[in-house]
Amino acid sequence: MQLLNISAIAVALAMDAFAVAIAAGVMLKKISFRQNFRLAWHFGLFQAMMPVLGWSAGLSIRSWIENYAHWAAFGLLVFVAQGMLRAAFKKETGENERKDPTRGLTMVMLSVATSIDALAVGLSLSMISVSIWTPALIIGLVAGAFTTAGMHLGKKIGSATRMSRYAEALGGMVLLLIGFNILREHGALGFLF
Prior knowledge:
- This protein is mainly α.
- It has one domain.
- It has six helices and no strands.
């Protein structure tokens, strides 16, 4: 597989991570090196691991993954989005407790949700007999770089205090839209269109 094709796949897969990273940056407003590294590392690691898992699984579990993986990603994104929306509206009432999306279970859920599509890419690469190691490395590195860029972009948006409440609510809505787009891409919303 050509490097250009692998790079295009990596950029396409990194778009969800980029959008989620923007939302995380908006939510945090100030990002430490540790927070940036943690999220970029985990997003990159999961984006690199999922194609390897998909490639290893091959055809044996393909039909099960294709039927349910998009619902799992949707559920994880909805769970995180509702937390962001709740936090945005709590700010209006003066509550400022903020959960760090670069820590704990939230970070793991976001990492899985943004990398589910990479599992399908790994399955596809196994069907055309392509070695997975170079594509997985490139996919992981690109996802990590896009995550870092997204967090810093989100930080700039979130640091404007007049916009921060709306930006955080918008971040939650973006996560919901990503979730619905995943369902749409997999034909799970065919009954609506």
